[in-house]
Amino acid sequence: MGVKILTEHIGTPGLETLAVYKSKGGYASVEKAIKTMQPDEVTEEVKKSGLRGRGGAGFPTGMKWSFIDKKSGKPRHLVCNADESEPGTFKDRYLMSKNPHILIEGMITASYALGANLSYIYVRGELMYVVNILQKAIDEAREAGYIGKNILGSGYDLELHVTCGAGAYICGEETALIESLEGKRGNPRIKPPFPAIAGVWGNPTVVNNVESIAAVPWIVNKGGDEYAKIGVGKSTGTKLISASGHINKPGVYEIELGITVEDFIYSEEYCGGIWKNRKLKAVVAGGSSVPVLPANLILNTVNGDKRLMTYESLADGGFASGTMLGSGGFIVFDETASIVHNLWNFERFYHHESCGQCSPCREGTGWMEKILHKFIEGHANMEDIDLLAEIGKKIEGNTICPLGDAAAWPVASAIKHFRHEFEWYVTHKEEASRPGAYYKGEKLVLA
Amino acid sequence: MEQNVQEELWSVTIDGNEIKVKPGTTVLQAARMIGENVPPAMCYYSKLEGSGGKCRTCLVKVSQGSTKDPRPMPKLVASCRTTVMDGMVVQNTTSPEVKEARAGVVEFLLLNHPLDCPICDQAGECHLQDLGYEHGKQKTRYEFKRRTFERIDIGPYIQLHMTRCILCYRCVFTCDQITNERVHGILNRGDAAEISTYIEKAIDNDFSGNVIDVCPVGALTDKTFRFKSRVWFTKPVQASCNCGKCSGKVTLWYKGEEVIRVTARKDQWGEVESFICNTCRFERKKTSDWTIEGPTHVDNKSVISANHYELKYDQPVIPQKTSLHADHPSFKEDKKLLN
Amino acid sequence: MSDSSKISVQFSPEAQALVQKYIAKFPEGKQKSAVIACLHLAQAEFGWLKPEVMDYVASLLNIKPIEVYEVATFYSQYYTKEVGKYVIEVCHTGPCWLRGADELITYFEKKLGIKKGETTADGMFTLKGVECLAACGSAPMFQCGMNYYENMDEAKVDAFINDCRAENKISRPYPIMK
User: Fold this and answer.
1) What whole-number distance in Å separates Cα of residue A300 and Cα of residue A304?
2) Fewer Cβ within 10 Å of end Cβ, chain B: N or C?
């Protein structure tokens, strides 16, 4: 068993209450930071920890904090991105519903570091029950004097609110989230300016993922150096991995960054192997947006090294033979899974979730979905494979926000690694369109 | 001391042409100042705050960020929303990558566009036609049913052909910024997004007609001009009046002796010089309402200046609606006239 | 701004109090931020977002009706058409699909006698396929109102439908921020 930073006390009855949470050492970081540290010292500890944004981009959290404009004299805001919607990712929901106070504590400590006096937790609208769990936790924390005016007699004021979305994946993009928080459509903004300069209502704003903020209390309590000792290289600390798909034990696992992918898939401590005694076919390791890798490439890099659960190791080989840790949405496909059908499913998702603001994404995502539908309906031809790849290329890098890239990468990687399967759908039109049919090597199997 | 009073100017090079501009100038504005190799802009409108960045037709490559930090930018950037840095080097038409991306954007924009130019009042002054001609490819590879919407009247003067819309948001910014009450907006999302008032409502205020002028395509057209004439059969004339509501500086579009349309005056980038009121636009259609200033300058590339369409054809060829593709012969003929 | 004299709908006193609570979360003059929560509330009160309901929300927040329409039509949780009392929203995205989301939808279709996207004749159930609900580890699953129903099988679906029909489990189906 590795170190558990975020999930250690999950399972303790009543952990969602302030009393039980405090009995486990909760809110110590608020006391320590506000009473004994300058705001910049808190930021410094987070920098030292090497913590990287857990929402998917992996940008160093401490560095992001240091970009916030403290000179303008405008109010500053910390916004927690709890709009967890990336297919394959469900860790934030788990953490917030089981251990809400760790997020509230992190929000207070991080807000103090940023000098933010008004902060928000933006939760996707579908998770209204989580919103209400967090509201209770906030009310308790306010009652205990951790939120409000003159916290712990320090002179530092903080208002912390939870607010909700209403069904839009795009609001996980930080500027779309800010728009939504302002009561608008979730259209990503054109950057620059970045939120650190002009975010919510034009004020300097930092947007951080739930898991990043929840790691802050431990870092402040034990020190950034201590956190940096966990993990491998630039992948420090622990990470929540959401494991789903064809495995024996789907769920959320807190891992120390650096365990092998093989261990994660096959050990009893984590996924417990592939279900129904089947073989591993492929993995999408970091949420639906990251490149899909076939079994051999997810377990080992092209150099033959064992692939590790780290930002660097998963990215080894670039997009030619690697992928990304992303949000840690680990989706496993067994040998019966159809990569093409799954890709159509993913592209339906991106088509549905495109905000429609910029032309490549608005028009391109739907086009890709329609072409993929031809494959599974048995109407595709060989040219469609290249057309699909080309549309993806025309979207990638040319859109306002990364949703375009997120829609294009799965297409590019599926064609790169599973081209034979696309071809099979073209050469076996009749079989391919039968309900329950899937591709397995050269032969058709009916599930 | 005098040196310090003078404003600092930054140097930017676009496709080999260098110009010095004020900090805060965008790459697109700098390119317009140079006047050559200007990236096309379908959504950006210099008079509308917050416009731009959406259509992606003006993407350029920044091969050197600045003198201080010469690293190239990792992705193509929207020139309309990227401000210059001192020593920035930009590639527009000299970059194959830009050309390729732009051709892609044109294909995306035309994916669901009906290409009903033969029956569209905007034809001849449509920015999407120009864009398709200059930067697009001959054929679309899209084989699916195109998105269509019902044509609706939004008030007595304006017709909305949502099917033609490219979602530039200009009309939304216009109503937000120059009228007192915006009643239309962008509804739905993704490729289902549309311009609408949601419940049938008239866009009804003194400046609403300006949405027609800012629309780059034939999505918002002047009902009083509907099917009156192809623009290349009309003669534009600069005129003015003492209007209490607006500048009164307009272009009158004559067919014979009759004023069949009034628009704001447009500059070489197709932007209005000043917004005009609805009284000038829709109600002053007699020569006697105006002081005539002289003929409007028309670019010699424009189909309007050709004005001899009737010499080439006995009658316009109107193709079947089902075969209105970019590669249709009639479309190409239209385009030849632009050359 | 909306002419409030023309508005025929009104929130319950409890809901009106919640609106004030939502507005108070944001700085003065930024009450537009509360529109998203208010529209959830409006659905809980009126079932779906009729134009007059949206106009009412606009009047409460002192914003233009179009600003509300723009938001209401952007987010997928809002119903701009009438729906059944219980809206069953089955996640059909990749990870759920890998573990039987299509079969779950088919079973609902069979049990309710409707197709995905339809509402039963008695107005009790609407069946929808929705995108990822962040419950991939407990697939297949669906959401109804505030609740997530996870690791579903046929017996659990049967029990759920019976509970709805008996109305002993779910009294107020639509989620609101408290």
Assistant:
1) 5
2) N
